[in-house]
Specification:
38% helix; alpha+beta; four-stranded mixed β-sheet; Glutaredoxin
Amino acid sequence: MTPQPTCIVYCRSWCGDCQRALRWLDDMGYDYDLRDIDEDGPSRERCVQLAGKVVTPTFEIGETCIVNFDPRALVEVLGQPPAA
């Protein structure tokens, strides 16, 4: 079994799409590193660098960037969920 690539999620605490994405990641059993761009300036800068502007959630998975919550794209990059 191939290990899951590192997943960094750039989000905001008040963002409904972010909360939905985090709940999905938890339910599916994926590991992730959460970065609140309102609380962490360097993470905000990295989010802008990846997405071209502030968009949450933004996912950095290895060399891949996924902007907005797209479960199909996340499974494609992360592999089959551990909970499956």
